[in-house]
Specification:
Blueprint lengths: L1 E4 L9 E5 L7 H17 L3 E7 L2 H5 L11 H10 L4 E6 L2 H4 L3 H12 L2 E7 L12 H11 L2 E5 L3 E2 L2 E2 L2 H9 L3 H8 L3 E8 L4 H5 L4 E4 L9 E8 L6 E8 L11 E6 L10 E11 L7 H18 L3
Helix pairs in contact: 7-8
Length: about 300
Protein backbone atom coordinates (compact mmCIF):
# COMPACT_ATOMS: atom_id res chain seq x y z
CA UNK A 1 0.00 0.00 0.00
CA UNK A 2 1.28 3.46 -0.93
CA UNK A 3 0.79 6.38 1.46
CA UNK A 4 0.88 10.03 0.37
CA UNK A 5 0.85 13.11 2.58
CA UNK A 6 -1.32 15.89 1.22
CA UNK A 7 -1.91 16.58 -2.44
CA UNK A 8 1.46 17.76 -3.71
CA UNK A 9 1.51 14.74 -6.03
CA UNK A 10 -1.35 14.10 -8.43
CA UNK A 11 -2.52 10.49 -8.49
CA UNK A 12 -0.68 8.47 -11.16
CA UNK A 13 -3.95 7.11 -12.53
CA UNK A 14 -7.67 7.52 -12.11
CA UNK A 15 -8.90 6.09 -8.80
CA UNK A 16 -11.85 4.52 -7.10
CA UNK A 17 -12.03 6.48 -3.86
CA UNK A 18 -13.67 6.55 -0.47
CA UNK A 19 -13.34 9.27 2.17
CA UNK A 20 -13.48 9.21 5.94
CA UNK A 21 -11.72 9.33 9.29
CA UNK A 22 -11.73 5.52 9.61
CA UNK A 23 -10.99 5.71 13.32
CA UNK A 24 -10.73 2.12 14.52
CA UNK A 25 -11.65 0.64 11.09
CA UNK A 26 -14.77 -1.08 12.43
CA UNK A 27 -17.26 -3.37 10.66
CA UNK A 28 -18.97 -0.43 8.97
CA UNK A 29 -15.67 0.82 7.60
CA UNK A 30 -14.68 -2.67 6.52
CA UNK A 31 -17.93 -3.15 4.61
CA UNK A 32 -17.26 0.15 2.84
CA UNK A 33 -13.70 -0.93 2.06
CA UNK A 34 -14.93 -4.27 0.70
CA UNK A 35 -17.21 -2.43 -1.71
CA UNK A 36 -14.36 -0.08 -2.60
CA UNK A 37 -11.90 -2.85 -3.44
CA UNK A 38 -14.54 -4.77 -5.44
CA UNK A 39 -15.39 -1.68 -7.49
CA UNK A 40 -11.70 -0.89 -8.01
CA UNK A 41 -10.98 -4.45 -9.18
CA UNK A 42 -13.91 -4.33 -11.61
CA UNK A 43 -12.65 -1.03 -13.04
CA UNK A 44 -8.99 -2.05 -13.07
CA UNK A 45 -8.09 0.98 -10.97
CA UNK A 46 -6.42 1.49 -7.57
CA UNK A 47 -8.60 1.38 -4.45
CA UNK A 48 -7.84 4.69 -2.73
CA UNK A 49 -8.74 6.19 0.65
CA UNK A 50 -8.67 9.85 1.62
CA UNK A 51 -8.36 10.30 5.38
CA UNK A 52 -7.50 13.17 7.71
CA UNK A 53 -4.82 14.00 10.27
CA UNK A 54 -5.64 15.32 12.77
CA UNK A 55 -9.24 14.22 13.13
CA UNK A 56 -11.41 17.24 12.16
CA UNK A 57 -13.00 17.31 15.62
CA UNK A 58 -9.50 17.60 17.13
CA UNK A 59 -8.92 20.63 14.92
CA UNK A 60 -12.20 22.41 15.62
CA UNK A 61 -12.63 21.56 19.33
CA UNK A 62 -9.52 19.86 20.78
CA UNK A 63 -10.78 20.08 24.37
CA UNK A 64 -13.95 18.12 23.64
CA UNK A 65 -12.68 15.81 20.89
CA UNK A 66 -13.22 12.11 21.64
CA UNK A 67 -10.33 9.81 22.40
CA UNK A 68 -8.93 8.11 19.34
CA UNK A 69 -9.41 4.41 18.76
CA UNK A 70 -6.35 4.19 16.52
CA UNK A 71 -3.19 6.16 15.87
CA UNK A 72 -2.37 7.05 12.28
CA UNK A 73 0.06 4.13 12.07
CA UNK A 74 -2.52 1.67 13.41
CA UNK A 75 -5.15 3.00 11.01
CA UNK A 76 -2.83 2.65 8.03
CA UNK A 77 -1.99 -0.93 9.01
CA UNK A 78 -5.69 -1.78 9.22
CA UNK A 79 -6.46 -0.13 5.88
CA UNK A 80 -3.66 -2.15 4.27
CA UNK A 81 -5.08 -5.34 5.79
CA UNK A 82 -8.40 -4.61 4.07
CA UNK A 83 -6.86 -4.37 0.61
CA UNK A 84 -6.42 -0.63 0.13
CA UNK A 85 -3.91 0.28 -2.59
CA UNK A 86 -3.42 4.00 -1.89
CA UNK A 87 -4.00 6.25 1.11
CA UNK A 88 -3.86 10.02 0.88
CA UNK A 89 -3.46 11.56 4.34
CA UNK A 90 -4.83 15.09 4.29
CA UNK A 91 -3.40 17.50 6.87
CA UNK A 92 -6.58 18.99 8.28
CA UNK A 93 -5.77 22.64 8.91
CA UNK A 94 -7.39 26.05 8.56
CA UNK A 95 -6.69 26.21 4.85
CA UNK A 96 -8.28 22.87 4.15
CA UNK A 97 -11.24 23.59 6.45
CA UNK A 98 -11.93 26.79 4.48
CA UNK A 99 -12.34 25.01 1.13
CA UNK A 100 -15.88 25.28 -0.18
CA UNK A 101 -17.64 22.10 -1.17
CA UNK A 102 -17.17 22.87 -4.88
CA UNK A 103 -13.48 23.70 -4.38
CA UNK A 104 -13.04 20.36 -2.60
CA UNK A 105 -14.63 18.52 -5.51
CA UNK A 106 -12.70 20.31 -8.23
CA UNK A 107 -9.29 20.76 -6.59
CA UNK A 108 -9.01 17.66 -4.42
CA UNK A 109 -11.27 14.95 -5.82
CA UNK A 110 -10.78 15.69 -9.50
CA UNK A 111 -7.55 17.69 -9.61
CA UNK A 112 -5.39 15.71 -7.18
CA UNK A 113 -7.07 12.33 -6.79
CA UNK A 114 -8.51 11.96 -10.31
CA UNK A 115 -11.57 10.08 -9.12
CA UNK A 116 -13.54 7.93 -11.52
CA UNK A 117 -15.81 6.41 -8.89
CA UNK A 118 -16.54 7.67 -5.37
CA UNK A 119 -18.10 5.58 -2.60
CA UNK A 120 -19.11 7.37 0.61
CA UNK A 121 -20.95 6.67 3.83
CA UNK A 122 -24.56 7.83 4.02
CA UNK A 123 -23.71 10.55 6.57
CA UNK A 124 -20.76 12.10 4.71
CA UNK A 125 -20.56 15.90 4.76
CA UNK A 126 -17.74 18.09 3.44
CA UNK A 127 -16.64 21.62 2.62
CA UNK A 128 -16.65 24.78 4.72
CA UNK A 129 -19.72 24.76 6.95
CA UNK A 130 -20.34 21.08 6.01
CA UNK A 131 -22.45 22.27 3.09
CA UNK A 132 -21.45 19.44 0.75
CA UNK A 133 -23.49 16.23 0.68
CA UNK A 134 -24.37 13.25 -1.51
CA UNK A 135 -26.74 15.25 -3.72
CA UNK A 136 -24.05 17.79 -4.57
CA UNK A 137 -21.57 15.01 -5.33
CA UNK A 138 -24.06 13.19 -7.55
CA UNK A 139 -24.88 16.37 -9.48
CA UNK A 140 -21.16 17.16 -9.86
CA UNK A 141 -20.41 13.62 -10.95
CA UNK A 142 -23.06 13.70 -13.66
CA UNK A 143 -21.62 16.98 -14.92
CA UNK A 144 -17.90 16.26 -14.54
CA UNK A 145 -17.72 12.57 -15.35
CA UNK A 146 -17.42 10.52 -12.17
CA UNK A 147 -19.77 8.05 -10.54
CA UNK A 148 -20.99 8.42 -6.93
CA UNK A 149 -22.64 5.88 -4.68
CA UNK A 150 -23.57 6.01 -1.02
CA UNK A 151 -23.42 3.10 1.37
CA UNK A 152 -25.95 2.67 4.14
CA UNK A 153 -24.86 2.27 7.74
CA UNK A 154 -24.04 -1.22 8.97
CA UNK A 155 -26.00 -2.44 12.00
CA UNK A 156 -25.31 -5.24 14.45
CA UNK A 157 -28.28 -6.57 16.41
CA UNK A 158 -30.09 -3.32 15.71
CA UNK A 159 -27.19 -1.06 16.76
CA UNK A 160 -25.52 1.22 14.23
CA UNK A 161 -21.84 0.34 14.00
CA UNK A 162 -19.77 3.48 14.49
CA UNK A 163 -16.53 4.66 16.05
CA UNK A 164 -18.59 6.26 18.82
CA UNK A 165 -20.28 2.93 19.61
CA UNK A 166 -16.90 1.19 19.78
CA UNK A 167 -15.51 3.95 21.99
CA UNK A 168 -18.50 3.80 24.32
CA UNK A 169 -18.17 0.02 24.66
CA UNK A 170 -14.46 0.25 25.49
CA UNK A 171 -14.96 3.02 28.03
CA UNK A 172 -17.69 0.96 29.72
CA UNK A 173 -15.42 -2.09 29.92
CA UNK A 174 -17.52 -4.05 27.40
CA UNK A 175 -14.44 -5.31 25.61
CA UNK A 176 -16.13 -8.27 23.94
CA UNK A 177 -18.89 -6.05 22.54
CA UNK A 178 -16.30 -3.64 21.14
CA UNK A 179 -14.65 -6.63 19.45
CA UNK A 180 -17.95 -7.57 17.80
CA UNK A 181 -18.37 -4.03 16.46
CA UNK A 182 -14.78 -4.01 15.18
CA UNK A 183 -14.83 -7.54 13.79
CA UNK A 184 -11.66 -8.28 15.80
CA UNK A 185 -10.32 -7.60 19.31
CA UNK A 186 -9.43 -3.98 20.01
CA UNK A 187 -5.65 -3.52 19.88
CA UNK A 188 -2.96 -0.94 20.64
CA UNK A 189 0.59 -1.22 19.37
CA UNK A 190 3.86 0.27 20.56
CA UNK A 191 7.52 -0.33 21.23
CA UNK A 192 8.95 -1.94 24.39
CA UNK A 193 11.07 0.56 26.32
CA UNK A 194 13.03 0.55 29.56
CA UNK A 195 10.95 1.39 32.62
CA UNK A 196 11.71 1.85 36.30
CA UNK A 197 11.84 -1.92 36.97
CA UNK A 198 8.98 -1.73 39.49
CA UNK A 199 7.61 -4.99 38.12
CA UNK A 200 10.78 -6.83 39.06
CA UNK A 201 10.60 -5.47 42.60
CA UNK A 202 7.06 -6.77 42.83
CA UNK A 203 8.00 -10.19 41.47
CA UNK A 204 6.35 -9.81 38.06
CA UNK A 205 8.41 -8.84 35.03
CA UNK A 206 6.51 -6.51 32.72
CA UNK A 207 7.05 -5.13 29.25
CA UNK A 208 6.62 -1.35 29.29
CA UNK A 209 5.12 -0.37 25.96
CA UNK A 210 5.34 3.21 24.73
CA UNK A 211 2.03 4.10 23.15
CA UNK A 212 1.09 7.20 21.17
CA UNK A 213 -2.48 7.36 22.46
CA UNK A 214 -2.63 10.42 24.70
CA UNK A 215 -6.13 9.51 25.90
CA UNK A 216 -6.77 5.84 25.21
CA UNK A 217 -10.45 4.83 25.15
CA UNK A 218 -10.01 2.24 27.90
CA UNK A 219 -8.21 1.91 31.24
CA UNK A 220 -7.75 -0.84 33.77
CA UNK A 221 -6.42 -4.39 34.02
CA UNK A 222 -7.06 -6.76 31.12
CA UNK A 223 -6.51 -10.24 29.80
CA UNK A 224 -4.60 -9.71 26.56
CA UNK A 225 -2.97 -11.44 23.65
CA UNK A 226 0.35 -10.10 22.36
CA UNK A 227 1.63 -10.37 18.80
CA UNK A 228 5.13 -9.51 17.58
CA UNK A 229 7.28 -12.01 19.48
CA UNK A 230 8.63 -15.42 18.43
CA UNK A 231 6.25 -18.28 19.01
CA UNK A 232 3.29 -15.95 19.46
CA UNK A 233 0.70 -14.84 20.00
CA UNK A 234 1.40 -14.83 23.73
CA UNK A 235 -1.12 -14.40 26.53
CA UNK A 236 -0.68 -11.86 29.27
CA UNK A 237 -2.08 -9.60 31.97
CA UNK A 238 -1.96 -5.92 31.09
CA UNK A 239 -2.41 -2.67 32.98
CA UNK A 240 -3.26 0.42 30.98
CA UNK A 241 -3.42 3.67 32.90
CA UNK A 242 -1.47 6.01 35.16
CA UNK A 243 -0.10 3.71 37.90
CA UNK A 244 -1.54 5.60 40.91
CA UNK A 245 0.18 3.21 43.37
CA UNK A 246 3.73 3.21 41.96
CA UNK A 247 5.49 6.22 40.45
CA UNK A 248 2.32 7.69 38.95
CA UNK A 249 2.79 8.85 35.35
CA UNK A 250 1.21 11.78 33.51
CA UNK A 251 0.90 9.96 30.19
CA UNK A 252 -0.89 6.62 29.99
CA UNK A 253 1.40 3.61 30.22
CA UNK A 254 0.73 0.11 28.92
CA UNK A 255 2.45 -2.63 30.95
CA UNK A 256 2.13 -6.30 30.06
CA UNK A 257 3.15 -9.33 32.11
CA UNK A 258 3.52 -12.21 29.64
CA UNK A 259 2.40 -15.56 31.04
CA UNK A 260 4.49 -17.80 28.82
CA UNK A 261 7.50 -15.78 27.68
CA UNK A 262 10.64 -14.63 29.47
CA UNK A 263 13.31 -12.98 27.34
CA UNK A 264 14.86 -9.60 26.65
CA UNK A 265 12.41 -7.88 24.29
CA UNK A 266 13.50 -4.23 24.57
CA UNK A 267 12.91 -2.45 21.27
CA UNK A 268 10.35 -4.96 20.01
CA UNK A 269 7.23 -3.55 18.38
CA UNK A 270 4.21 -5.32 19.89
CA UNK A 271 0.50 -5.42 19.16
CA UNK A 272 -1.57 -5.88 22.32
CA UNK A 273 -5.09 -7.23 21.75
CA UNK A 274 -7.53 -6.62 24.61
CA UNK A 275 -9.77 -9.63 25.24
CA UNK A 276 -11.45 -9.07 28.61
CA UNK A 277 -11.48 -6.44 31.35
CA UNK A 278 -10.60 -7.81 34.78
CA UNK A 279 -10.98 -4.66 36.90
CA UNK A 280 -10.52 -0.89 37.06
CA UNK A 281 -7.18 0.66 37.94
CA UNK A 282 -6.90 1.17 41.71
CA UNK A 283 -4.69 2.95 44.23
CA UNK A 284 -3.21 0.76 47.00
CA UNK A 285 -1.87 1.89 50.39
CA UNK A 286 1.53 0.21 50.03
CA UNK A 287 3.66 -2.09 47.87
CA UNK A 288 2.57 -5.12 49.86
CA UNK A 289 -1.08 -4.60 48.96
CA UNK A 290 -0.13 -3.83 45.36
CA UNK A 291 1.96 -7.01 45.12
CA UNK A 292 -0.91 -9.11 46.48
CA UNK A 293 -3.37 -7.61 43.99
CA UNK A 294 -1.03 -8.18 41.03
CA UNK A 295 -0.66 -11.81 42.09
CA UNK A 296 -4.44 -12.06 42.18
CA UNK A 297 -4.73 -10.36 38.77
CA UNK A 298 -2.29 -12.83 37.21
CA UNK A 299 -4.19 -15.73 38.78
CA UNK A 300 -7.49 -14.33 37.47
CA UNK A 301 -6.07 -13.90 33.97
CA UNK A 302 -4.76 -17.47 34.00
CA UNK A 303 -8.23 -18.63 35.03
CA UNK A 304 -9.73 -16.61 32.17
CA UNK A 305 -7.44 -18.42 29.76
CA UNK A 306 -8.08 -21.72 31.60
CA UNK A 307 -4.37 -22.18 32.26
Amino acid sequence: MLVYRGFSQTAHSATVLTIGNFDGVHLGHRALLARLTAAAAAAGLPAAVLTFEPHPREFFAPESAPSRLSTLREKLELLADDGTDLVHVCHFNAGFAALTANEFIERVLLGALRIRHLIIGDDFRFGAGRTGNFDLLAESGARLGFRVEAMESVTLDGERVSSSAVRDALQAGRIEHAARLLGRPYAIDGRVVHGDKIGRQLGFHTANIRIKHERPPLQGVFAVEVKGLPGGPHRGAANLGYRPSAHQVVRPLLEVHLLDFNADIYGAHLIVRFLHKMRDEMKFPDFSALRAQIAQDVADVKAYFQL
